[in-house]
Design goal:
about 260 residues; Yope Regulator, Chain: A; about 20% strand; Trna Endonuclease, Chain: A, domain 1; 2 domains; alpha+beta; about 40% helix; 5-stranded mixed beta sheet; elongated
Length: about 260
């Protein structure tokens, strides 16, 4: 069965990015180059191939292998990490064939399939967020668990940066949630330093003219320096003094912002 590679590349570029390229690697097999990166700068590994009379996008096992650079495989198959991966597979309808992630292309919707597949791979890579030094505290584990349980997997991203305005990732957002009218930027605030960083980031986003809602969730608001807290309060739309007894309230507020 023939294939018009030019038409597919056009659809990829139209639906995803002008930077997408296709390179033939043999019979009915093409390497798909995209601008999407893991947080360490590695590109996503994506192949377009035809098997069993159907076109598929595949990572050929690269995504899980990439995770094992930082995490033992047994560790990302349990707890919050497993939930993030399971939610991503389910939400984006990916197939896991012995660690090879596959996405079927239906009705020749190549561009839509590539966009969904790339987003799913990036969502799965969010488990690396759990492996950082700053998330070793129980508070940040609770924060990640709260988000993973309250928000559909396809609507949040941990450690998000604005690629257009902030290519060097100087102003990360702990969690970006896709809202109905504008995104929600959620910050986990365990100490003064992180609270000051969040204040600076929010002010920078406003300077860039971004439209968003901001939420701050403290580990213990009483431990934050009063001047630092005052400055943060001036720029943040909503704050919660801790997770504990606020867990339900935080979930309800985020749900309201997602749909309002």
């Amino acid at each position: 069965m023939g294939i018009n590679i030019g038409n597919i590349q056009y659809d990829f570029r139209d639906k995803v990015s002008e930077k997408v390229r296709l390179v033939s690697e043999g019979n009915m097999r093409f390497r798909v180059f995209t601008p999407f990166l893991f947080e360490d700068g590695d590109h996503l590994s994506i192949v377009l191939k035809r098997e069993n009379d159907k076109w598929w996008l595949s990572d050929e096992g690269h995504t899980y292998m990439h995770l094992t650079y930082d995490i033992d495989e047994k560790d990302f198959l349990k707890g919050t990490r497993q939930k993030i991966i399971t939610n991503a597979l389910s939400s984006f309808m990916l197939e896991d064939h012995d660690r090879e992630l596959l996405f079927p292309i239906n009705e020749e919707r190549y561009g839509d399939a590539l966009f969904s597949f790339a987003q799913a791979l990036l969502k799965i890579s969010d488990v690396l967020y759990l492996n950082r030094e700053k998330v070793r505290s129980a508070f940040l584990e609770d924060f990640l668990s709260l988000i993973a349980n309250a928000v559909p997997a396809e609507r949040f991203a941990f450690d998000w940066c604005d690629a257009e305005h902030d290519p060097e990732a100087k102003y990360p957002v702990d969690c970006r949630i896709e809202g109905k009218s504008r995104p929600i930027f959620v910050y986990a605030l365990p100490n003064d330093d992180h609270t000051m960083d969040a204040t600076i980031a929010i002010l920078q986003f406003e300077k860039w003219g971004l439209h968003f809602r901001s939420v701050g969730i403290f580990e213990d608001q009483e431990n934050i320096n009063r001047r630092v807290l005052s400055r943060f309060s001036d720029v943040c739309d909503k704050q919660f003094s801790g997770i504990g007894y606020n867990r339900e309230g935080i979930g309800n507020y985020i749900a309201e912002m997602m749909h309002g």
